[in-house]
Amino acid sequence: xxxxxxxxxxxxxxxxxxxxxxxxxxxxxxxxxxxxxxxxxxxxxxxxxxxxxxxxxxxxxxxxxxxxxxxxxxxxxxxxxxxxxxxxxxxxxxxxxxxxxxxxxxxxxxxxxxxxxxxxxxxxxxxxxxxxxxxxxxxxxxxxxxxxxxxxxxxxxxxxxxxxxxxxxxxxxxxxxxxxxxxxxxxxxxxxxxxxxxxxxxxxxxxxxxx
Length: 211
Hints:
The protein is an alpha+beta fold. The protein is built from four helices and twelve strands, in the order βαββββαββββββααβ.
């Protein structure tokens, strides 16, 4: 499962890297984003070809939920299109989580990142949940089985969306999105020896599917 990631870029850097339009909320760089915390999310804008930045809660609450007792923060690539928890979001509300590294295994303090500190785009889905007049926006990161190179850190890794595939993931058909989830993974990950930041007291992972 993916239980922590870094996004140590500010709002303007995210706007430039992902070609965003419209107004954007303020995001302060963080080396330790965990389930239950707000995080930056890239989603399709209201006009074709436009993308926007939002802050959403990490831990997906489906629109039909009666309460927030289940907030899965990962969704499996193998079942995201058919799972009752995720299929509606996968069909209509796919998004990208910008990251500069992630921590896969609780047993190791090392990060996984791309060479030259390239910005990652993690495949994700998002939802709206309305309760007593308030609307909560939340998301889950899509994971897939790790390859031979990275399996030492954990059994599953987030699916990375290459820059040339971002628009397809955000606005393409379900079949097009599925091909991205199950395509060969050409990304060469590197291990960083920098230890992780301490876990904030308020960031306890919520219950639910860990994927």
